[in-house]
Amino acid sequence: MYAGQLKILEEQNLLRRLNDRECSQEPRIMFEGKEYVNFSSNDYLGLANHPFIIDGAKKAMDKYGFGPGASRLLSGGSILHKHLEDRISQFKGTESSLVFNSGYAANTGVIPALSDEDTTLFSDEFNHASIIDGCRLSAAETLVYRHKDLEHLKALMERDGSKKKIVITDTVFSMDGDIAPVNKLYDICKKFGALLYLDEAHATGVIGNGKGALAHFDLNPEPWIVQMGTFSKAFGSYGAFLSGSSEVVQWTLNNARSLVFSTALPSCVIAASMAALELIDNTPELIEKLWMNREKLAAGIEIIGYDIMGSETPIIPVRTGSIENTLRLSAYLFEKGIFAPAIRPPTVKEARIRINVTAAHTDEDIERLIEALKRA
Ligand SMILES: *Cc1c(COP(=O)(O)O)cnc(C)c1O
């Protein structure tokens, strides 16, 4: 039934395959018995296998068991869920927080919950797919503004007659590695009386000493700012959170279908996120190392003459010019023992190699990639 369509995808070089590793998620991973330096992981601080986190998860499993058995609104949550929410509020300086099962579940649950027929959503064109899907599920109209184009955003907002306006942006863009102008979006939202919805998936644990974009830009969390972030990237764990005013959190708890109608996260996962938060809060060297590695690699790639497409963070895209070139470069690197995957449409408009560098990469790993890119 789908064979014809699959063949077309293959001919267009757009057929995707799974890449299941044969070991834990590390800077070096095994595929089919061979070792590769891994530049594809979002485990920015190298916490995915940290003993403190594993120990936290094991202790929680011993006490609370494994299966949560129900939605959080029934009996699916344990007291650890509440503790993690309190710690997130403290970390973010907000009134209240709410755990979600994943970043995808947060965006597809929270965005429809916060909007109605009288709402307009203003969404950056490079926002993550889960934001796009959240907008699609909402009753609101969505207007897409050109990537980080504030004049375009303002023009759309001026023309819009809706009662409620929500501006939605990734704070670190997941495929380009640039940072949203959150300070200017803050001013615009204040002026228009709009809500500002920040997706901090790649900012949490990475910018603003790990606290995200508001800390990065030296801004306070206001009641009209809604922050969403994940435990699945720099935290090396799994799940997500919403953080903001008590009013927004309570409303969301009553209306986000991905929260109400889905089983809670297991307590051991919650305990892992809590342990990661402690590590990030108490070990500033982790984030320092991440940024040292990022500067080393970005400088090395730029010196050879590659275009890193405006990257400002540990997400470093490398411009390749075409889907064919992207696949060829990715295959060449793979042959050299480096895993740096090709990112193609529809994930992005323009194909690229996306390199993610982490605090766990060694100088040797970084030099190996630069050397291979030089020869390619
Ligand atoms: C990864 C990501 C998500 C989804 O988070 P998961 O926890 O993986 O579901 C949402 N938004 C952005 C910007 C992301 O990069």
What characteristics describe this protein?
376 residues; alpha/beta; Aspartate Aminotransferase, domain 1; 2 domains; 7-stranded mixed sheet; 3-stranded mixed sheet; 14 helices; binds pyridoxal-5'-phosphate
Bound compounds, each kind once, are:
pyridoxal-5'-phosphate
Number of domains: 2
Number of helices: 14
The CATH class of the largest domain is identified as Alpha Beta
Averaged pLDDT: 97
Spatial sequence of strands, sheet with the most strands? 3-9-8-7-6-4-5
Residue share in β-strands:
15-25%
The CATH fourth-level homologous superfamily of the largest domain: Type I PLP-dependent aspartate aminotransferase-like (Major domain)
SSE sequence, one letter per element? HEEHHEHEHEHEHEHEEHHHHEHEEEH
Q: N- to C-terminal separation? A: 40 Å
CATH architecture field of the largest domain = 3-Layer(aba) Sandwich
Largest sheet: 7 strands, mixed
